[in-house]
Amino acid sequence: MAKADAYWRRTRRLTFTLLLCWFFVTFGVTWFAREINEMAFLGFPLGFYMAAQGSLVIFLLIIWWYNRQMRKIDAEFGVDED
């Protein structure tokens, strides 16, 4: 039972950490849009770039990181499908 508790504790910690990253990217960038727009990326205001492309790339990285870490956690606790 302790092994299952440790597995779910690690899974929840990973999930909540990545949800916090998602929240910051989604709402943090929007909240500070005026300040972020003072910087430019590829000739566009950074806030515009983050809304149009950057946040999508970060969301894909969050999904990739979750998948990678969950595979490691599953293998460590012996619940992987392989």
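Above is the first protein from milestone M3; the second protein from the same milestone is given next.
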Amino acid sequence: MKKLTLAFTFAAMLPASVVFAQQKMDDMKMMDMMKKPAAYAQATHMASGVVKKLDAKAGIATIAHEPVASLNWPAMTMGFMVKDKMLLDELSVGKKVNFEFAQADKGYVITGVK
């Protein structure tokens, strides 16, 4: 009878321990997710390229940039949003620029132009 009672007690505790373990894993995942936005916001990258197109209304500069080592990107042409539309005053089609950018919620954003 003792063995049967012990077996039932163990069997009853097992689902509870699985639930607690799952909850702990979920909590850890949530903590990781909360850390990522801050890490992305702090990461900035430098690139050089030639301005191909400007869309002042949308706040987008299309740049044919050289490889970006910090992101392991090859050279390509892509549209970047600008953090502040006043940055567009420093850009003109055909101009070679050095620029700083960061990842945002919906793409990459130019944060500075040199």
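Note on the second protein: The helical segments are 2-42.
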